[in-house]
Design a protein that fits this description.
The protein is mainly alpha-helical and about 575 residues long. It folds into two domains: about 10-115 and about 125-230, MFS general substrate transporter like domains (Growth Hormone, Chain: A, Up-down Bundle); about 315-550, MFS general substrate transporter like domains (Growth Hormone, Chain: A). It is built from 17 helices and four strands. The strands form two sheets. A two-stranded parallel ribbon has the order 1-4. The longest helix has about 35 residues, at about 165-200. The protein is globular. The protein starts with a helix and ends with a helix. The relative contact order is 0.13.
Length: about 575
């Protein structure tokens, strides 16, 4: 017993987190490179229409983030987070391998329409049958793999820091910032180097590089295995939550005791170091009935998890219910992100993309916000957080919900700025009589940097704020699932983006109906998104003020630290 604490201290910490950063950077390098450029592969190599190409990409991205739920459930129920990362990375590796083989051998894909002579255009057919099956198999193996990694990898990294230790609590907050930093570095290399390879050397080489990056990601995460603090799966969190619903319904006619200390709880330490007891909260009192013992003495005579649950299990359910409005209130920001990604790329094709004699490829334009994030993240972690920590006494500088709220405000500002930039771009087209011209307008593409920079800052606050919030607030038995739920905001943002455009087009009479941005009213659309973002922020304020932070009661001498963290 005397040697165990020393062994535990040698595990985890920043040294173990380095391998997590490496895997995230490499995995995101491949994922983001394809996220910004796959539409050209679908259109040019699979002969999909522009509409189907865009829809296929949006569905792929949305599904990838949604499949994080699968990874989260497996990690919390069956496997450690490390094993989950390796398993899903192997799936992603297989997916990229399939895409590489299809891009390499022309027999496995349709003849590209651009390679056909005008007299052979009857042979121009979109990928169907076996060709489509190979494409979608590879594509959605990548989606499944990256989804599982997004659920388990942030939680694996965060597990390396003990939030009960004041020093490690501060390091935990920094971990999420540097996790985003590694994600950003990977994305920068992906949208520049890998996109350049796809444009100049071919898609087969692009997929080969993606395959190799995932292979190296697996190697790096395995290299740190001896250093990790690994979680012990506690069984399915979904089963535990369903048990609370069933037990509460069965006990619906029982009165809740005035002395809530009589509610059922198990105080013996279980499940190793991850054991925790959650303090009862006064919200959703109906579910407290799941912890009512039916005997007169209060003993748990009605054995069975479907009839009697612990207070901790009930609070675990309440936590998930309280989290749902928070995640719903952040979906619209990711809808705006999806619009910014698609329409800003289209705007860039009408502008001067020369930079010192080098022509910036359209899919590489997202490097602008990434470069801003590259600069802002270290400033936030090394300057803002220490200053805020001195004022508030909170290890994270500001509370998680405050950080998310700042990001939502900045996203509304970004949409407003995007409207003004688009107005200026259209005025240049009118001034130079180039409304219907296909030539680049005499305005630099870096005007788009204004809206991108602000949205990059918004992403820095909200994305990592959500990850940190869901990890911190989730119970010990559902950390990966909590992380996965935070990614669902991005998933639904992508899924709703197409609906938003179609609805606005119908209601407005065709703001975005033309194939010519110089005649569309994209600026009005951006301003509408800004106004809706303000309304969404009001909804978020209501949800955030209603939220009750969890309180852990593991050990008496830990209670103060837990209250401070809340």
């Amino acid at each position: 017993m005397g040697t165990q604490p020393r062994v535990q201290r040698r595990l985890g910490g920043n040294r173990a987190a380095l391998f997590v950063y490496a895997m995230e950077g490499l995995e995101n390098m491949a994922f983001v490179a394809n996220a910004v450029s796959l539409v050209t592969y679908f259109f040019g190599y699979m002969n999909f229409s522009l509409t189907k190409s865009a829809t296929t990409l949006t569905n792929f991205l949305g599904t990838a983030f949604l499949l994080a739920l699968v990874g989260g459930l497996i990690s919390d129920t069956y496997l450690s987070r490390f094993k989950t990362c390796v398993l899903f990375a192997c799936m992603e590796l297989l997916g990229y391998g399939i895409l590489t083989v299809q891009a390499r051998f022309h027999q496995l894909r349709p003849i590209p329409c651009k390679d056909l002579a005008p007299t052979q255009m009857s042979q121009c057919e979109a990928a169907t049958g076996g060709h489509a099956a190979i494409l979608y198999t590879g594509l959605y193996l990548v989606a499944l793999g990256t989804g599982g990694i997004k659920a388990a990898l942030p939680a694996l990294g965060a597990d390396q820091f003990d939030e009960k230790d004041p020093k490690e609590a501060a390091q935990l907050s920094s971990f999420f910032n540097w996790f985003l930093f590694s994600l950003t570095i990977g994305a920068i290399i992906g949208v520049t180097f890998i996109v350049w390879i796809g444009v100049n050397l071919g898609w087969d080489w692009s997929f080969i590089v993606c395959t190799l990056t995932i292979l190296f990601a697996i190697v790096f995460i395995c290299m740190g295995n001896s250093l990790y603090r690994n979680n012990v799966p506690k069984g399915s969190p979904l089963i535990r939550i369903i048990q609370v619903f069933v037990a509460a319904f069965r006990n619906r006619k029982l009165p809740i005791p005035d002395n809530t200390d009589k509610l059922h709880e198990i105080h013996e330490k279980r499940g190793g170091d991850n054991f925790e007891i959650l303090k009862r909260t006064d919200q959703f009192r109906f579910f407290d009935r799941a912890a009512i013992a039916r005997s007169s003495t209060g003993a748990a005579t009605n054995s069975g998890p479907w009839r009697l649950c612990t207070v901790t299990q009930v609070e675990e359910t309440k936590i998930l219910i309280r989290m749902l409005p928070i995640i719903v209130s952040t979906i619209f920001m990711n809808t705006c992100l999806a619009q910014l990604q698609t329409f800003t790329i289209q705007q860039s094709t009408t502008m001067n993309t020369n930079l010192g004699g080098f022509k910036v490829p359209g899919p590489s334009v997202p490097v602008i916000p990434l470069m801003f994030m590259f600069v802002l993240i270290p400033l936030y972690d090394r300057v803002f957080v220490p200053l805020a920590r001195r004022i508030t006494g909170i290890p994270t500088g500001i509370r998680h919900l405050q950080r998310i709220g700042i990001g939502l405000v900045l996203s509304a500002v970004s949409m407003a700025v995007a409207g003004f930039v688009e107005t200026h771009r259209k005025s240049v087209a009118i001034k130079h009589n180039m409304v219907d011209s296909r030539e680049p307008l005499p305005i630099s593409v870096f005007w788009l940097g204004f809206q991108y920079a602000i949205f990059g800052a918004a992403d820095m606050f909200t994305l990592i704020g959500l990850l940190e919030f869901f990890y911190a607030e989730s119970s010990a038995g559902m950390k990966s699932l909590g992380t996965a739920i935070s990614w669902c905001s991005v998933a639904f943002g992508y899924f709703t983006s197409t609906v938003v455009v179609e609805v606005v087009n119908k209601v407005s009479g065709g703001w975005l109906a033309n194939n010519n941005l110089n005649r569309d009213n994209l600026n009005y659309f951006y301003w509408l998104l800004s106004v809706l973002s303000v309304v969404n922020f009001g909804f978020y304020l209501v949800c955030a003020s209603w939220y009750r932070y969890k309180t852990v009661e593991n050990e008496q001498d830990d209670s103060k630290d837990n209250v401070d963290m809340a």
